[in-house]
Amino acid sequence: MQNRVKDFLRDRQLTVYQFIKDTGIAPTTGYKLANDPKHLPSIRVLETLCQHYGVTPNDLIEMVER
């Protein structure tokens, strides 16, 4: 699995700073999610992101073949 946060932010024209500010997640977590596709969010963070943006986990993470 990998996260799709970088694409998500680009598609919504959000900066990482705005993403962190909007959702209240820790800055370290926000920057890791935006810059490292292999960094997966915790369930709590994933729930926060989905609720805030009205999306599903499939919009933020995806399965990839090895």
Q: What is the helix fraction of residues, given as a range?
A: 40-55%
Strand coverage percent: 5-15%
Order of helices and strands: EHHHHE
Measured distance between first and last alpha carbons = 9 Å
Number of strands: 2
Q: List segments where confidence is low: pLDDT < 50 over at least 5 consecutive residues.
A: none
Radius of gyration: 11 Å
Characterize the overall form. globular
Quaternary structure: single chain
**Structural class estimated from helices and strands:** mainly alpha
Mean pLDDT: 96
The biggest beta sheet, please?
2 strands, antiparallel
Please tally the helical runs, counting DSSP H or I stretches of 4 or more residues. 4
The strands making up the biggest β-sheet line up spatially as: 1-2
Topology:
Elements: E1 2-3, H1 5-11, H2 16-23, H3 27-35, H4 43-53, E2 61-62
Antiparallel strand pairs: 1-2
Supply the key terms.
66 residues; mainly alpha; 4 helices
Describe the structure.
53% of the residues lie in helices and 6% in strands. With 66 residues, it is mainly alpha-helical. A two-stranded antiparallel ribbon has the order 1-2. The longest helix has 11 residues, at 43-53. The chain starts with a strand and ends with a strand.
